[in-house]
Each structure stands twice: as structure tokens, then as C-alpha cells.
């Protein structure tokens, strides 16, 4: 397993695009997550426009346990950058035909796919670790009290975030394997939220029960949009097992489709 | 002799197009096996199936007497069509990656780089290499694992005469080491020089296979020049003549079976004609190739 991961990382070792995109991703993730107070100031001035005033110091954006879900939801917006990198990595194998040579050299198609999936796991783990560290540091700085119980509350969203990123990277890998052209794949990847939204808003009129089963919707159900809790409403601050099951199922389906496609095609 | 590769009724359809049709042949250990055929005759598709990148639609094959597995391919060094590497990695890093895939010692890299004379450029990115260097790196990569079988598909494509000679020498040297080589090429001269056996494909069908040294056998052609005005009549009068052509001031006499150039020489002498030029033309693989293609 580790051997396959090392093979895929070796391919990236002198690939500047990969390092630039990954560097940008983790930088944006770090700085973005750490500049939540600036966001609050913007929010305050925005609400000011409606003739209301909020005291931003009373919004516990970075307090335990709120910090976890807040950071995780925001970090989820950036996963598409990582996904674009995954698309480039897999479609390069088709355009340079190196996939073909890898198989000729003695890798099985399953092993090739596994090496890509393992890289996805690694990238997802790194994202989750990064968010964990940022959450811990900012939480410790801003929280008025450092009770153990409050610190670990809502920490279950961290594995959910890992799942979210891995789900999306699996989706990107599958699109890349199915389409094999980087430009088209990236466009489809960026449009998939919108396409699904168009479909779901039509389905909504007839079979609203189906909506939670759509892939992008299942992510929204897994990690709830946290900010309404500071304005007017209660949010769900636990993870629904049903949502986990749906996301897991989609992740399996995506990777299985990749496997079937690779196994059956002439390369 | 051990059978390295056995192909049984192998076939491949791309939709309605029959790319490879019911091919059966065997390659024994130590043979240098030439695969010939016009463009689009199914050579690369066949090699692709043998190397696991094209799924056969019919038939089967076995390597080393066993059904093919993925890891078995590590014992086979292959370059199909053209060199394939990661352009942004250096030549050396590409080979390091291949060594990881083939699970062979990294120490081999220096040897193969030296063998193909790329040691000096090993740290430059692959995309900066000339075509000849890319071809040589591909051969280095195929040899990396000290394979039992080497598959080379047009290895001299796009090389200069020195490069072609270098690769020919390399193939002969590798073959002398007892390795089995399968060589697909358009350069029939090359195949005749280095191969022991050959097969001809046409439109996906195997139309001929056999040893290369059989090619020269069969009827002889004799090229004759002599200072005699009615030479063509005399040549036609010879009972062993099957046809006479005039070419570049000399006569090409195609002899019937059992007649040799010496018989013709004796006949001319008896007719008081002394040949100033008499050469037996061995049939080349190229002629044989064109004949077989025309017959089929």
C-alpha cells in the first residue's frame, strides 16, 4: 500500500504545478481560517447597513466548541482547488500516456487506481490535520475558558470533514478517468454543484424525499451551514448517521466506477 | 527449447473493425522474433494485448507457459510505439519511478544509463531530450529489470544513421546474451540482419511465419552481363530460364528450380559467350515480404 503511495508521490516530485497548487491550497486554508475576525468585522459593517448593530466580540466564532464547525464548513469551500489538482494528476496520465506505460511496466490497473486513491486519502488527511491544528490554536487564543469538555465537543465534525474532502476528490478522480481531458473535466467539476442544484430544484416539486440522496446535497447534510446560529436559529450540531451513510455510499460508488472504467478500457 | 510466448487464436475487435484476427504463434527462448506488416496491420494492437493494455476479445496467450498476470510483465521489458515518460521528470527520476514499479534495485539505473550513453544528461528533464535520446531512454527503461524478454516496437523510428547502427548493435549484443527479443519494425533490412524468425501480419491476420534463414532458399536470380549482341536470345534458349528482364544494362535471369548459376555459366561458355559479370542474387527479406503480401 505504502509502496503504491510512494509511486504516485514520486510522479509529482518535480511537477511544479502540483507543488504550486498544493502550496496555494494549504496557504489559503491556513490564512483563510485564521482571518475569521476580519470576516466578522465585514459582517458587522454589512449588518450596520440594515440599521442594526452587533458586537463582534460577542460572537464566539473561535470559541470552543463553535470553532470546529465554523472552520470545517469554510474549509469545505476550498476543497475544489485540491480536486482540480487531482484532475490534473489523472488526466496527465492519459495525455502523456504514462498510464499505459505504467501498466506495461507491471502495475495492475487496480494498483494504479489504488495509488491515486491513496494520494487522495493523504491529501484529505493533511487537510483535516491542518484544520485540527488551526482550530486548536485559534480556539486556545480566543476561547475564554479551556475546559476539556468544550474543547472536544463537536470534534466529530473533523472525521466528517475528512470524509467530505475524500468524497470530493474521489468524485474528481472518477470524472478525470471517465472524461480523460483536463479542461472539460475541470469545467464539469466546477459546474457539478450548479447542475445538481438545477436538477434538485425540479425534483423538489415531485419527489422531495429524493433530495438528500443527491451527492452534493449529501455533503450539505453532513456538515451543516453553521452561521445562522449567530443570527436567529438553531442549527443541527451533530452528525446524522443517514448523511454519513449516503456520503460513504457515493464515495464507494465513485471509486468503483473508476475501477470498472479502468478495468474495461483499452489504454 | 522453452516456449516463452504462446498465442492461441488471439483476436481484437474495435467495434466493427477487426484489428487482430485469430492469430496463433509461438516464440521460443533465445529467438529474435521479427513482427512485420504494413501500417495498421495489427502489430501494436497485438503487442498491446500481450502487455495487458488492450483487452483481447477472443483467444488467449501465455507467457513463460503460464496464464498472464500483472506482475509477470515485470520480467518483460517493453517499449510500444514511442517512448513514454513523465516530461517534467528528469531521465533519472523516470527510471527511478520505473524501478519502483518493477520493484528492481535502483543500482541498475547507472548500468542502463551507461549502456545507452545517457549518463551525462540523466538529471535533465525528459522534455529537453532529443528524439534519439528519448528512444535510448526507453530502451534503458526496458532493460532496467534485466528482463527475460524484450519487446521493441519500431525502436529505430526517427533515429539518425548512427543511432540506428547503435541500436542494431545493442539488439545483437542483448540477443547474444540469450535474451528473447520481439521486434516490430518496418525496416526489413534491420529485421533480416538481427532476427532469427519472423512473422508477417496483414489486416490483422497472420499470413506467414518462419525462420529468417529460409528466406534465401528457393529459386535463384542471376544477374548477367556479356559482350554479345544476341545475349537475350541465348539466355532465353537456356532450358533453366523461367524469365529474363533487362535492367540497367544487365540481364536479370530468373532460374527454374534445380538450376544454379553455375549451370547457366557453363551453358553460355558452350555457346562461346564469356560473361563479364555474373552475380547470384539472394532473395532479400524485402522481396519475400512484398511477394507474400502480394500473394495473400
From TrEMBL, chain A:
Report any Pfam family annotated for this entry. ABC2_membrane_2
Segments traversing the membrane: 67-90, 117-141, 161-179, 186-203, 238-257
Q: Which UniProt keywords apply?
A: Membrane, Transmembrane, Transmembrane helix
Where is the signal peptide, in residue numbers? none
Record's Gene Ontology CC terms? plasma membrane
Q: Which terms does the record give in the GO molecular function aspect? A: ABC-type transporter activity
**Domain of life of the organism encoding this protein:** Bacteria
Indicate what this protein is called per its UniProt record. Answer: ABC transporter permease subunit
Q: Which organism is it from?
A: Dawidia soli
UniProtKB/TrEMBL annotation, chain B:
Coiled-coil stretches are none
Q: Does the keyword rRNA processing apply?
A: no
Q: Does the keyword Methyltransferase apply?
A: no
- Select a single GO molecular function from the record's annotations and give it: ATP binding
Note the InterPro entries from the entry: AAA+_ATPase (IPR003593), ABC_transporter-like_ATP-bd (IPR003439), ABC_transporter-like_CS (IPR017871), P-loop_NTPase (IPR027417)
State the similarity comment: Belongs to the ABC transporter superfamily.
PANTHER family reported in the protein's UniProt record:
ABC TRANSPORTER, ATP-BINDING PROTEIN
Q: What is this protein called?
A: ATP-binding cassette domain-containing protein
Question: Which species?
Answer: Dawidia soli
Amino acid at each position: 500500500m505504502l509502496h503504491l503511495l510512494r509511486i504516485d508521490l514520486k510522479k509529482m516530485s518535480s511537477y511544479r504545478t502540483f507543488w504550486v497548487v498544493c502550496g496555494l491550497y494549504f496557504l489559503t486554508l491556513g490564512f483563510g481560517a485564521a482571518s475569521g475576525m476580519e470576516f466578522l468585522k465585514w459582517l458587522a459593517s454589512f449588518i450596520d447597513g440594515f440599521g442594526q448593530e452587533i458586537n463582534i466580540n460577542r460572537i464566539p466564532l473561535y470559541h470552543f466548541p463553535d470553532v470546529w464547525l465554523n472552520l470545517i464548513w469554510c474549509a469545505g469551500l476550498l476543497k475544489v482547488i485540491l480536486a482540480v489538482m487531482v484532475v490534473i494528476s489523472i488526466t496527465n496520465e492519459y495525455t502523456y500516456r504514462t498510464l499505459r506505460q505504467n501498466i506495461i511496466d507491471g502495475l495492475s490497473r487496480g494498483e494504479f487506481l489504488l495509488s491515486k486513491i491513496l494520494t487522495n486519502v493523504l491529501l484529505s488527511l493533511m487537510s483535516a490535520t491542518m484544520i485540527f491544528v488551526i482550530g486548536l490554536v485559534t480556539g486556545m487564543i480566543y476561547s475564554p475558558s479551556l475546559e476539556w469538555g468544550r474543547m472536544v465537543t463537536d470534534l466529530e465534525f473533523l472525521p466528517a470533514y475528512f470524509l467530505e474532502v475524500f468524497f470530493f476528490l474521489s468524485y474528481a478522480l472518477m470524472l478525470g478517468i471517465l472524461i480523460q481531458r483536463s479542461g472539460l473535466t475541470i469545467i464539469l467539476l466546477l459546474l457539478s454543484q450548479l447542475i445538481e442544484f438545477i436538477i434538485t430544484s425540479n425534483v423538489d416539486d415531485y419527489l422531495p424525499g429524493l433530495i438528500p440522496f443527491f451527492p452534493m446535497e449529501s455533503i450539505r447534510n453532513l456538515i451543516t451551514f453553521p452561521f445562522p446560529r449567530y443570527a436567529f436559529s438553531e442549527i443541527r450540531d451533530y452528525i446524522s448517521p443517514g448523511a454519513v451513510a449516503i456520503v460513504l455510499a457515493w464515495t464507494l460508488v465513485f471509486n468503483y466506477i473508476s475501477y470498472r472504467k479502468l478495468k474495461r478500457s483499452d489504454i | 527449447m522453452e516456449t516463452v510466448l504462446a498465442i492461441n487464436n488471439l483476436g481484437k475487435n474495435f467495434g466493427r473493425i477487426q484489428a487482430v484476427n485469430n492469430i496463433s504463434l509461438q516464440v521460443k527462448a533465445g529467438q529474435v522474433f521479427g513482427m512485420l506488416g504494413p501500417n495498421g496491420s495489427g502489430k501494436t494492437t497485438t503487442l498491446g494485448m500481450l502487455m495487458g493494455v488492450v483487452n483481447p476479445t477472443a483467444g488467449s496467450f501465455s507467457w513463460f507457459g503460464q496464464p498472464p498476470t500483472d506482475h509477470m510483465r515485470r520480467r518483460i521489458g517493453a517499449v510500444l510505439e514511442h517512448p513514454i515518460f513523465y516530461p517534467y521528470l528528469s531521465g533519472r527520476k523516470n527510471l527511478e519511478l520505473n524501478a519502483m514499479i518493477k520493484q528492481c534495485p535502483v543500482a541498475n539505473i547507472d548500468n542502463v544509463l551507461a549502456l545507452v550513453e545517457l549518463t551525462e544528461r540523466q538529471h535533465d528533464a525528459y522534455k529537453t531530450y532529443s528524439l534519439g535520446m528519448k528512444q535510448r531512454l526507453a530502451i534503458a527503461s526496458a532493460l532496467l529489470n534485466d528482463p527475460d524478454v524484450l519487446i521493441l516496437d519500431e525502436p529505430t523510428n526517427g533515429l539518425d544513421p548512427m543511432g540506428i547502427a547503435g541500436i542494431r548493435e545493442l539488439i545483437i549484443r542483448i540477443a547474444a546474451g540469450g535474451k528473447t527479443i520481439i521486434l516490430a519494425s518496418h525496416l526489413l533490412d534491420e529485421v533480416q540482419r538481427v532476427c532469427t524468425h519472423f512473422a508477417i501480419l496483414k489486416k490483422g491476420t497472420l499470413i506467414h511465419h518462419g525462420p529468417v534463414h529460409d528466406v534465401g532458399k528457393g529459386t535463384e536470380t542471376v544477374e548477367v552481363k556479356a559482350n554479345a549482341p544476341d545475349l537475350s536470345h541465348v539466355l532465353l534458349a537456356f532450358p533453366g530460364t523461367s524469365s529474363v528482364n533487362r535492367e540497367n544494362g544487365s540481364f536479370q535471369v530468373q532460374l527454374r528450380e534445380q538450376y544454379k548459376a553455375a549451370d547457366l555459366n557453363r551453358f553460355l561458355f558452350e555457346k562461346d559467350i564469356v560473361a563479364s559479370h555474373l552475380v547470384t542474387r539472394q532473395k532479400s527479406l524485402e522481396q519475400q515480404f512484398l511477394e507474400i503480401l502480394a500473394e495473400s
